[in-house]
Amino acid sequence: MAGEQELAVTVEHLTGLEFKVRFDWPDAAEILTDESEPLGCRRGPNASRLLAAAIGNCLTASLLFCLQRSKVDLTGARTRVTGRTERNEKGRLRLGGLTVRIDLPVAAAEREKLARCLGLFEDYCTVTASVRRGIAVAVEVLDRDGGVLFASAE
Predict the structure, then answer these.
(1) What is the pTM of this model?
(2) Domain 46-151, CATH among 3.50.50.60, 3.30.465.10, 3.30.300.20, 3.40.630.10
């Protein structure tokens, strides 16, 4: 299918629950991830914060891309993603919901220039659309010799 692209992210354990995350783009900086206390030391964002960042980034980029294509030039958009964790029926923590607020540096009088993009941008955000409908995740755990210790049903 046109537009399909592969991606790869490498997550390497350092100590405790700290990990070094490397991306398959040679110029992309590595990031450190960690968990909050008492499990970790908050030396980097945890997975929930990375997902929130991915959603906020994707939505904002989709909106700005559409606005640029529509000849609405602006700089300085600011996005804040807030959320909450809650326990499911088994008592496991899950993201209970996220709220995204995108502040655009435009006056109310310019609203008509934005209308088309405001009706489109959510649908073009790969991450948000994928999260909303669910993403299949296959999991394998291998031993040091490459033997399969675990394989998920997906």
Answers:
(1) 0.88
(2) 3.30.300.20
